[in-house]
Amino acid sequence: MNNEIDNNLPDFSKSEALTLGIELELQIVGGQDYDLIGAAPDLLREMAGREHPGDVKPEITDSMIELSTGICRDYQDALGQLRSIRNQLVHQADRLGILLSGGGTHPFQHWGKQAIFDAPRFHQLSQLYGYLAKQFTIFGQHVHIGCTCPDRALWLLHAFNRYIPHLIALSAASPFVQGIDTGFQSARLNSVFAFPLSGRAPFVLSWDEFNAYYRKMIATGVVKSMKDFYWDIRPKPEFGTIELRVMDTPRTVERAAQIAAYAQAVARYLLEEKPTEPREDDYLVYTFNRFQACRFGYDGTLVVPGTAEQRNIGDDIIRTMAAIEMHAYDLGATEALNLLRTEVLQARNGAGEIRQTYASEGSLEELVRQSCELWAGRAWVEPGWRWV
Amino acid sequence: MIPDAFNMSSINEPLAFFLPAWPLVLSSPLWIALAVALAALAGEWVRRYLGLPRITAYPMVGMLVATVAGDRLVAEHDEWLRWGLNVALAILLFELGSRVDLRWLRHNRWLLATSFGESLAAFAAIFAISRYLGIASEPAALLAAIGMSTSPAVIMRVVTESNAQGQVSTRLLVLTALNTIYSVVTIHLAMGMLHQHYSGDWVLAISHPLYLLGAGLIVGKLLAMTISRLRHWLTLRDEYASIILLSIVLMTIGLIEALRLPVTLCMLFAGIVLRNGERRAWVFPEHFGSVSGVLVVLLFLVVGIQIKMEHLLTGGALALLLIGARSLAKLGGVLLFARPAGISWRQGLLLGLALSPAAGPVMVAASDLGHIYPELQATLIPVAMSAAAIMELAGPIIVALCLKWSGERRE
């Protein structure tokens, strides 16, 4: 990072409409005690020069690592890329005797033990935010959706706010924090709230207005770049995308690809059918809906923006799935939609699975071990030493 | 008649029947306890003011105690001290074994290659130097076998104390467990050769290591099975569970001695089986380590008591040569496979150096050898004793520094 501040937003690159990009933040777990372990430098060193699609990058603490796909056309493409990166990462982790896991939080890590990854930007963040930076040892999925022009991107960003609770409920996988069941399905998002620039983007629908807002914020000295906004959805001008950031990292790459496909189909539905026109007042119920989704998942209550109608979040997802079915078909995401629908109908998500595993095993270490095996794609793994 | 009782003809007669004789006769357990207390205090001091691991201080206090009190302190209580030390060692090795993940070795064959490499190199280096010093090949092989092993006690304590986690410390534990296994088996073979037990009988020579490994594995499996049965209805993380665990370990030691098996090997196997036999996550009970805390102090204290000032000096340059060659051999073995095994050169360097502490039994074995071969008294024994003594004192410091430089210490 140089200190010279660019007062202007970077130009909005033009992306092919509705292309996908997925980023997943992963937990690096020690093979000895199943706690987080600061092995990102080791893993990155061993990943260097290996053939795989997408990219693998460090994150703020060195027990986190981020994988990202390249630009994906559709669900199958995203799934293929994610599996390929996952396999290479798991292979290297196996060589290092460490484990990788999905999920929005590590169930029993202590934030005080985390170390900041050794890079200037992360040290700056750590200085600014103090212990918040270390408490930011949480793991999310980000989905980029390509937009052809910036105004359309902003329109989509605000039209999408109604569906944010869906994405939270579908991906929720962080009931445990610091060894305790929080009662939330996604406790991870509570940590994001602590940041001053979290929440929603300002309601502007043209790129010029947005640029004006951005310049004003820069002038206040509060922010230095787009990276300092921790909004739930934010435009990413360099990529020509909007970035959905509310999801917990799911427990498998398959689930991550399905959720991205769902978001893609919703975006196509919104852009082509224009079922509603976004308004500032939509945000009156936004934080309420968001909280309900974090706390109760599918069982939460959602107030439909612009009405006083209250719906069950799970029901609302099923209705939305019916509405977007044709779009999912056109995008080649029918399989993803069907798999997700089954989960919703059975009221299953990552948080539920995690609680169930803990209830039957009674040990958070064993829970972490199973999460790691699940992530590696080998749910039923052989005992270490068969012939003893 | 009564005044007679007050007749203080001898100072040893007590004043009254319930009073002790004067001067007080203090039993040696009191002195041993005092030494343990002193060692523990010195340990805290070393940690606070020098930033070194506590166990650095224990053997030094032991040396000091030995110069003041002589080694009769240990000699008089040989039997129960030996038990105490065995228990301390057994618990340490059990825990060390449970840190070995066999799946890792299967996923990373180069790690196994590293292990063979560094052990063989250390064996070869010591064997060559001993032969060069004019020692017959059997005792030379014995010494070399002992030298293969990295001190499990030092490694376990320093890694635990510095709360280190990462490639260097995890590999350090695994390599130590493995080279200790190789070492124990080879020592028994070399002893067999030395005492001419085999006398050309190949069946004996082959069945000996098979018995050690096989029976050791069975005892280990028994212990591991007992514990994993217990685990189903007992919270092993509970403080009280470690009492049960401790008594099971004690019983196992009894069994091991009855079967004439090495404690080292059996407990390592038990740990390894426990960790790898089941799919479930195994994490050692938190309080288990503190149970053995006092015993660990005692262990290092006794090691120190056996070190004499003259040991450090008599070996001279040859002792340093032996240490240097062994350390270099281990370092070379690790560095050779460092990159394919998935660690950086720097990590390889630190791992190789951290493997250098020599195991405690070296000195015992060396003095045993001296009794069997009086002619070695002049050549090999002082060198080996000296090398072992130097490494006992320097080992913990080297490991602590390596872990610090690797950035894996989390205190």
Which descriptors would you attach to this protein?
heterodimer; A: 388 residues; alpha+beta; Creatine Kinase, Chain A, domain 2; two-stranded antiparallel ribbon; 14 helices; 13 strands; 15% strand; globular; disordered N terminus; B: mainly alpha; Na+/H+ antiporter like fold; 20 helices
List the helices and strands and how they pair.
The complex is a heterodimer of chains A (388) and B (411).
Chain A: E1 20-30, H1 40-47, E2 55-58, E3 64-68, H2 75-96, E4 98-101, H3 120-129, H4 131-135, E5 140-146, H5 150-159, H6 164-171, E6 176-177, E7 180-181, H7 188-193, E8 198-199, H8 207-220, E9 230-231, E10 233-236, E11 241-248, H9 253-273, H10 286-296, E12 301-303, E13 310-312, H11 313-330, H12 334-345, H13 350-361, H14 364-376
Parallel strand pairs in A: 8-9
Antiparallel strand pairs in A: 1-3, 1-4, 1-5, 2-3, 5-11, 6-7, 10-11, 12-13
Chain B: H1 2-5, H2 28-50, H3 57-69, H4 72-75, H5 78-97, H6 102-107, H7 109-132, H8 137-148, H9 152-161, H10 167-194, H11 202-231, H12 241-258, H13 263-277, H14 288-291, H15 293-306, H16 309-314, H17 316-336, H18 345-354, H19 361-372, H20 380-405
What does this structure look like?
- Helix content of chain A is about 45%, strand content about 15%.
- With about 400 residues, chain A is α+β, with helices and mostly antiparallel strands.
- In chain A, the strands form four sheets. In chain A, strands 1, 2, 3, 4, 5, 10 and 11 form a seven-stranded antiparallel sheet that branches.
- In chain A, a hairpin with a 4-residue loop joins strand 10 and strand 11.
- The N terminus and C terminus of chain A are likely disordered.
- Chain B is an all-alpha fold and about 400 residues long.
- Chain B has one domain: Up-down Bundle (Na+/H+ antiporter like fold).
- Helix content of chain B is about 75%, strand content about 0%.
- Chain B is globular.
- Chain B starts with a helix and ends in a 6-residue tail after the last helix.
- Chains A and B meet through helix 1, helix 2 and helix 14 of A and helix 6, helix 10 and helix 13 of B.
